[in-house]
Amino acid sequence: MAAGYRPRRASGLDWLRTGIYYVYIALATLVLGIVGLPLGLRGRNSANRVASIWLGQMLGAARVILGLRVEYRGEVPAGDLLIAAKHQSFLDILALARACPRRAFVMKREVLNVPIMGWFARKVGCIPIDRARGKEAMRQIISEVATARETPEGLGQLIFYPEGTRTRPGEKVPYKHGVTVVQRATGLPIVPVAVNCGMFWPKRGFPIRPGIAVVEFLPAIPAGLRAEPLLAELENRIEPASMALFHEAGGREALA
Q1: Topology given in CATH for the domain delimited by 3-255
Q2: Given CB 3.0 to 4.6 Å as the disulfide criterion, which of 25, 73, 117, 192 pairs with 216?
Q3: Minimal CA–CA distance to 162: which of 172, 151, 147, 152?
Q4: 3-class DSSP state of 212
Q5: What confidence tier does 222 reach under pLDDT thresholds 50, 70, 90?
Q6: What is the pLDDT of residues 227-241, one digit of tens each?
Q7: How far is CA 58 from CA 89, 125, 195, in A?
Q8: How far is it, in rounded angstroms, from Cα 208 to Cα 202?
């Protein structure tokens, strides 16, 4: 195993670098958000270009300031489809969005309140939901997916986090049915994704450690399975693959 795939013990310098990184990305977000506003107003394609530049800044600064980069494995998906990903930190959001050419997320409605980021998220096609509204929220997602598929640009890659929350490396929580409901309604394939991003960029964001995080795209699951078998299939693919990446990065010993 290459040394870069294992995070080292956090030091005081890592705390300092993390603070510098957050200051930099806050300023970069502010400047790019203001400069990119006219493009964002032109529609989804233009807003996506601004988002791609922003994502490049975020991940580029992570390499330079933090010594952290992302390795992608598997076939990066394109076209209209659903993605079901393990969620450990903000890094996997950045990495997935950077990899997918026409990315959009199913996200908590509260994200809309985040200055600049929330506005652009809606412009690029993200779907904000109130998870407390249950079936009504599912109907909203299905309706917005159908509408997006009818546009010249299409839906793109709609990203779900079936756990519904960030988990710590090596941790597993029950999956939720959202992505399975949408697949049965739309017939779109689901691409499962395994990650070990939380080994380097922790759930709460401090401190970020240098190394090589991995995002692995797994073979797609076509439509046809019923909800419960499909949810089980997602877990059976994502969890073992994520655990393998967890151990590749040193497992619990590396987090000590």
Answers
A1: Glycerol-3-phosphate (1)-acyltransferase (3.40.1130)
A2: 73
A3: 172
A4: strand
A5: very high
A6: 899 999 999 999 999
A7: 14, 20, 18
A8: 7
